[in-house]
Amino acid sequence: MSNMTAQCRTQGGHKMPKITETFTKKAEPPRNGNKVYRDDDLMGFGLRVTAAGARSFVLNYTLNKRERRMTIGPHPAWSAAAAREEAKQLRRQIDRGIDPLEEKNHRQAAPTVADLWEEYERVHLPTLSARSAQDQRSMWQKYILPDLRHLKVADLTSRHADRLHAAVSATGKLTRANRVLEVFRKALNLAIRWGWIDKNPSDGFRRNPEQPREQYLKPEEYQLVFDALDRMPNQKAANAIRLLALTGSRRGEVLTLAWDDLDLDLGLWIRPAEKSKDRKRKRITLSNEALMLLRAMQVDATGPLVFPTSNGTPMQDLNRPWRWLRDDTGLSDLRIHDLRHSFASVLISGGETLETIGKLLGHSQHQTTLRYAHLMDDPMRSAANKFSSVVKSDFGK
User: Fold this and answer.
1) In Å, what is the CA distance from 87 to each residue of 92, 139, 232?
2) 219-226: long-range pairs with CB below 8 Å, 24+
3) What's the pLDDT tens digit per position in 239-287?
4) What pLDDT is attached to residue 362?
5) pTM for this one?
6) CA atoms in the 13 A half-sphere facing the CB of 182
7) Using H for helix, E for strand and C for coil, what is the string for the chain?
């Protein structure tokens, strides 16, 4: 009965063929348009041939009362045998109520890593300081996008994340590799929030060991720095560096400082949220030395910015003046950010609490200031020794 049924299955009055590799190659093209030869064995499986002779394998099916046709792939990229096996797999999905064409269309429309970057740039970067945003933009353009741009976010695996980390690490920039993966992980967490993926493939990546590079100016080195600043040809840049040293502020916070941010009568720097690294408004108390510097500068001020360029925009960097200062002082390893660390070090040595130092540095979280806790060992030892000096004589009695 089954043989008779197979023999009676026809297409347009003709017996339906068994779609083999030989048949696929020899199937006659139509005069115009295209023609579909249906397989005599696998329901819905067919070969589509165009008038130009192009051949591709298709699967016709009905699901939820909808007639669908899905292209499996072109010949000869797909052999007849491979296309048949794929059609069988698709039929199993259909039997379970899954629409493979809908799944395929969904995959094709799924966001790529390039789409993730565009959304991350639009939604997240505006919440960062200008410098942090530019730094992260550089990470994406230099490291993340070149190799991952065209990948679907949903197809990313932990292997992709590990390879990215290894590639950046191979350049010798071990700390940078950690930062790149942290940025990528943040973007993928947002992708989870947006419903693009369910799990972050960069979670748990193995970080490179980081040795904190901490350098603190000694009193005699501070003297070298301030003496060199007096000799510096560019006194506007010298004043910016002086203010960095006197406040422990970040470079970007000083270079974008406006006179309206200052209340010199009360001795306060009211830092707007958009100029703070954590995007929170800060109220910073200024020292007498910082106030004297700013009041002297205000006498010659001609615009809204404290450190403007000739065209009225904020100074972009202090790279050239800083190189001059390092050459002049011989402090070749000193970084601008070391002024911030040194500011904290001096205050701790003077007995100030971490809470007070955190407020002066503009930290919004106590945890951030704890990085300086180890500097309190010497003041604490000095305090402990005071106890010993008081009671030592009693021990000798």
Assistant:
1) 9, 43, 77
2) 221/329, 221/331, 222/342, 224/329, 224/330, 224/331, 225/325, 225/329, 225/331
3) 999 999 888 888 888 999 999 999 999 988 888 877 766 667 778 888 8
4) 59
5) 0.48
6) 10
7) CHHHHHHHCEECCEECCCCCHHHHHHCCCCCCCEEEEECCCCCCEEEEEECCCCEEEEEEEEECCEEEEEEEEEECCCCHHHHHHHHHHHHHHHHCCCCHHHHHHHHHHCCEHHHHHHHHHHHCHHHCCHHHHHHHHHHHHHHHHHHHCCCEHHHCCHHHHHHHHHHHHCCCCHHHHHHHHHHHHHHHHHHHHCCCCCCCCCCCCCCCCCCCCCCCCCHHHHHHHHHHHHHCCCHHHHHHHHHHHHHCCCHHHHHCCEHHHEECCCCEEEECHHHCCCCCCEEEECCHHHHHHHHHHHCCCCCCECCECCCCCECCCCHHHHHHHHHHHCCCCCCCCHHHHHHHHHHHHCCCCHHHHHHHHCCCCHHHHHHHHHHHHHHHHHHHHHHHHHHHHHHCC
Structure tokens at 165: 């980390």
Both tokens of 65, joined, read 């009362």
User: Looking at residue 36, what is its pLDDT?
Assistant: 93
Q: What are the residue boundaries of the structural domains of the chain, listed by start?
A: 2-109, 113-193, 219-380
CATH number 3.40.50.150 is the correct assignment for the domain at 219-380: no
Q: Are 317 and 165 in contact (CB under 8 A)?
A: no
- Give 370-378 contacts, CB < 8 A, sequence gap 24+: 371/212, 372/341, 372/344, 372/345, 372/348, 375/216, 375/344, 375/345, 375/348, 375/349, 376/348, 378/349
> Mean pLDDT across the stretch 165-182?
94
pLDDT value for 344: 78
Here the tokens at position 195 are: 């419903």
Pick the CATH number of 2-109 from 3.40.190.170, 3.40.190.10, 3.30.565.10, 3.30.160.390: 3.30.160.390
